[in-house]
Amino acid sequence: MFRYFKAVIIAVLPKSESLSATWAFPLVVLSAFMIAWGAEVAQFLVSQGLALAMLAWLQTLPEFAVEAVIAWKAGHEPDKAHLMIANLTGSLRLLVGLGWPMIFGTATVFHRINHGRPLKEIILDDEHAVEVLALALPIIYWVFIWYKASLTVLDAGILFLLYLIYLVVLNRIPPQSEEKIEDMDIIPRTLLRSSKTIRNGGAILLFLGGGLILYFVAEPFLESMLLLAASLGISQFLFVQWVAPFLSEFPEKLSAFNWARRPNMAPMALMNMVSSNINQWTMLAAMLPVIYSISRGTVSPILFDSHQEAEILLTIAQSSLGILLLFNMRFAWYESLGIFLLWLIQFMIPATHRLITGIYLSWCLLEVVFLLVRRKQLNALFIFPRLLSKAGKK
Q1: pLDDT tens digits, residue range 47-81?
Q2: Which class in CATH covers the domain with range 2-77+84-392?
């Protein structure tokens, strides 16, 4: 894969940039695995959800950096303000529309290899009810943001508070049981079998080491890919909405796909994506009006035009559907396929955005009716209070 990647970029990019890309790409891969191993160890020290939240922060650092630069420039160049929402909505729709189905696809391929039959569904663990409900809250608040057509510093404070509540709840959930250590890769398994000092120190080093590598190589990697996109004739808007988010989310996709190839780790892989969704709906979105206001030198709201409102509604509808599908704590093959096909259509044919939004909302309505009729399928709502009660007794 590295050889093919190297051949492509050398053929397209200037020599200096092609050299930058060839050393940056393998280092991004290395950082992704280091951070993922750190998360595998950490889930036995704190709750898996809290470990994934830490993982999501490190993995989405490039995305935060890209958005911060866009927001800062928008403060000085108002004609670029629309790029903030383009990058945010593109990133979120990529996670659900492409990331979730690719997790399922990877899991089912390896399930067929190991068991001779395809995977019908990914069954979430009880503790994942926290992530499912935590993603629902900011999406509900974003309906209000969409309705008033602006994103303000006050909204940023509320989104930050929602994320803080999410972390507090995660901190109450107990770590994984030691019986699951055997399912880990050799590096996290070796650390978990070591003394407490080595185990804890190893997890910290993996997180810090992977995070530092990612911090230093993210810019040259993204810059070289930006030039590659320009060389291939990709427009600025298309790059900001789709190419930049895909590249900046590349580390988390690598670690998630690595977990998805092991069916028993597929739920963790899916929750890795959901955790990033929560991070971006709250903290990434909250950062925008703050950076934008600092850049302008005064507290300023980010106002949405009709096109941005349509993009936000489409994104809200897609994420709402994703959450409703996870309320039964299962993710089925046909749900994965449906989400992917709808994302692919709106990606390939932008003129269908209004139609796809209508389909998402109609599907959401059907899911709500189905959940109300068969209330036993509201597993996440029933599991969550039991989870908190159990955590309170420990």
Answers
A1: 667 777 777 777 777 778 778 888 888 888 887 78
A2: mainly alpha
Assigned token pair, 342:
């709808």
All structural domains of the chain with their residue ranges: 2-77+84-392
Residue pair 124/330 in contact (Cβ under 8 Å)? The answer is: yes
Calculate the alpha carbon distances from 14 to 11, 135, 216, 234, 280 in Å: 8, 42, 21, 17, 34
Q: How far apart are CA 101 and CA 105, in angstroms?
A: 6
C-alpha of 61 from chain center: 12
Could you give the angle at which helices 250-260 and 266-279 cross, rounded to 10 degrees? 160
Which residues face 303 on adjacent strands? 150
Does the model's pTM come out above 0.70?
yes
Which residue, among 217, 212, 241, has the nearest Cα to 229 in the 3D structure?
241
Q: pLDDT tens digits for 204-253?
A: 888 788 778 777 776 676 666 666 666 766 666 666 666 666 766 666 67
Please tell me whether residue 303 adopts helix, strand or coil conformation. Answer: strand
